[in-house]
Fold these 3 entries.
Entry 1:
Amino acid sequence: MEADSKPATWKILLAFAIIYFVWGSTFLAIRVGVREVPPFLLAGMRFFIAGLVLYLWMRLHGTPSPTFREWRAASVLAVLMFVFDYGLLFWAERRVPSGIAAVMMATIPMFMALGEIVVLRSQRLTLRLAVALLIGLGGVVVLVGPSSSLAGASIDTAGACALIFAAISWSIASSLTRKFSLPASKAMSSGAQMFAGGVLLMLAALLLGEFRGFHLEAVSRGAWLALAYLIVAGSIAGFTAYVWLIHHESPTKVGTYAYVNPVVAVLVGYFFGGEPIGLRTILGTALVLVSVVVITTASKEAKAAWAVASQPSTETE
């Protein structure tokens, strides 16, 4: 059938460019926005609008609305992925350079691997995975540690802790996603989660007192443009490109955005945000990315080996 034919090369390249460079650049957009808009409020506006647009778009195209059970699951995931992950990321970017924040968030595969090994027991700890986890931990220590032998100051401790907690929260949500009842349509599922996340982030902003003393008219054009970029390019266009690629390319290829985004974020922060790149940043980033590459490529092999080892013998059958 014609629908199964491979799409034009330029479309594939454009979609990869979006998830590589647009998603990588959103970290600087967040930093620009939180200079003037409280972090949980800014995150809430981003995901409330993006989620609502995506939800309405899917409804107009005939996709059924999530059931009560699916909304409940989406809301639980929204707490972990949006309130704890994105909320803390936006908060931390008031204290941590955008490029470093992206590198710290790249540790998510590390925590996912640890969860699968220790909690879910869905894969076995191999020597290769153990070394990769230690390398990643070393990268975090380089970025956060107080060592004076490395050029550049270590990042803010509170900001670093918030980012690590955010990465752990996302990894937990990723594991729970497999167990929850969510809409069959990935687009509707993401729209529902973003919308629920936006509502919950707004509530968090209210409880944290972020509405007090905040005046819309005092926000500059640059901050509004940053928010518009996060909504349109980062959430709507970025997600659309990601879902489209998942249906046309292998998950392994699409997953390479996890390696590219931190590098793009560091470079965008340096050239457009005036953020320094010293030996500490270069070494810490390199260690984290090496760890992520090894973990993501080794996980499939480890899971397969563990699955085989866990199966009862069938030699007598």
Entry 2:
Amino acid sequence: MAFELWIEKYRPKKLDDVVDQQEVVDALKGFVAKGSIPHLLFAGPAGTGKTTTAIALAHEFFGEGEAFRRNYMELNASDERGIDTIRTKVKDFARAMPFGDAPFKIIHLDEADSMTADAQHALRRVMELYSDNVRFILACNYSSKIIEPIQSRTAVFRFNPLPDEAIKERLRFIAENEGVSYEEEGLDAIVYVAEGDLRRAINLLQTASAFGKVVDATLVYKVAGIASPQEVRDMIQLALKGDFMRARATLRDLMITYGMSAEDIVRQLHREIMALPNLNDAVKAELAYHIGEADFRLTEGSHGDIQLSALLAKLAAVGGRT
């Protein structure tokens, strides 16, 4: 059977079905009730529903048929980020009259914060000239990367990372519809890896279900290439107790078993150290400083194995004083 894209299959077609962004949905439903919307700027982390909300909003205005296909255009601005795209594709679509009895057309520019400054200034001019018959929805991770003249022309909506229970509820819904066997620990593992990103969570569920009969925690961590949190915590505790060689052996096992890069391990170390309940704030602050140093050196091209060993040595030294 073909490997379906569950993200597209279960993408909501109505605003009411958008997962856990109620304040945004309520405001947009108010625009729908009035029959008009301003230019919109959706900002927030990946996988929180920005693209889904834009598509659902367009369906609310245009329905499911030809009117939607003719009046809605989506471009990924990270692929087509130059000024020529604004002057050709976007401008040509914007100047054409809406199809049917639609009050306006909608142009959705995804990852708009990847657009060049020249392209953004050209877009500002297009927004001014064709505001009578087209509305823009800009989606981005960082609204600060959008030039101020565009921000001032849009209504800005912030999307928050999705809570764990909302992600688990959606995963259960998909698993039950697809006949996927799962354990609760498996869903917990997906939520841990996804970190509020529903898109990533659905991808993990689909991939794990293709690799095993039952989606459990062990399978999820292997598929994601992420170490089990408990294994990372055990390694941290060994280092803090001064058992450097055992901690380093555990580190090597994690890198071989899960195929993790040094950068991935540093990020997970940071996450687990910040969550440890038996460390006071002063110790966590010192360890965060050492983790930051290791991360910087890895970014500059230093040898991963050496930097991780040095980081474990720092943990052992700090643990020896506490």
Entry 3:
Amino acid sequence: MKEKISPVNIIKRLIVFCAGQMILALGVVIAVKSALGASPTTGIPNVIYQILLSKGSTSIGLGTITTAIYCVYILVQFIILRKDFKLRMLLEIAVSFIFGYFLSLGQGILSFIPAPETYAMRLVYLIVSIPIMSLGIAVYVTPQISPAPAEGVTAAMSQKTGWPVPRCLLIFDIAIVAVAVVLSLIFFHGLVGVREGTIICALTLGPVMKPIMGVIQKPLMDFCGTQTKREAAMAQAEAAAYDPGKLIITVDWEFGSSGDILAYDLAEKLGAKVYSNDQLVDMEIAESGLPERFVREHEKLMRHSALYDYSTYAYMIQQTLDPLDELYAAQVRVLRNIARTEQRAVILGHCGNYILRDDPNCFRIFVHAEQTDRVARAERRHNISGEEAERAMHATNHSRAKYHQDFTGEVWGQARYYDLTLSLSAFTRTNSSPLVVDAVERWKAGHREHNTKISTQA
């Protein structure tokens, strides 16, 4: 869908943005009350706030201090970028004042909550604050108005150094926490305002935010008239129209089921070109411009969920595409281009069944087999032991399923997402090929009849 820009949508975006900032502010206030520290970006303001409280000064609140420090972050961003600093980045000044105001408002609203007296209660306050802060961030990034000043510094670092955003976020977080620690040690000779809670927030905000985004992102974006960066990138790929002479087959398979061998048999019988993993990866490297090693090993990254969640969080708060999203968008463009330009093709894996789900010329197959059969075939085909075959089977199927789930929202291998699922335990590869060819021809005949009726009625 195209992004809608209208006064009504701008107002909606502002409402959602401010709601997110308010929720985030409430979470930060609760974290500050825990006395265990809040998120890294609020570390310096919190320490300064605690210093002023210890001096008996109550005229300058946490919100005012945060606004001032955030403006310093904008100055740092300007120093890093210099001539590359854009006028639109000055929106971050407004973000600073809005968040500072909501922090002050949040402190007033939650003033009735007593400060915890025991360490256990402090932990409870901190644990309660984390999902609230995660929800606030998830809400305020959805309208795509402006990143916060801290995220602006991270983006500036990434732009100037060429380093990945997650690395720059980590460096910046460490730097500002270090400054907060130094300030605390100078004035308190100990850690006040920045403690273990700061580290806990840094490690948990991303993983907690991810499922929240899964629930609220689509309805909020529908409300605001926006779309994700991935959707915008994918929209560049043109879908194919119905062609009675065209046939595109996608094949997914469990490791060891011989689904890829069946795919080659089908291609030979149907006179179709095969697009294997190696060919598709080369095309995706060219399309995305991403490093070859990253593209070839992207499925392995999905296994390290903590690292992936941190990286996703870093890009999400920047309101930019992370490399895996960029790769998936390139994957969409590559597969749709194949479906549009080839008359007959067999595509192996790469989420083809989902990417081409609306293609009227696409027939989707999933191949599976009993575990004992898969292990035995893997032993013979790869010349490995049964134990090694089981490990390889589990790792490969797990990474395929997780990648598919994360990018399509579908359960990999579930029958309802395919036109045909086939067990190569019940059928051998040799006697299943004619069966699949027959199924494809019957499917095409049904499609021709259906589209003929539509065109006649039109």
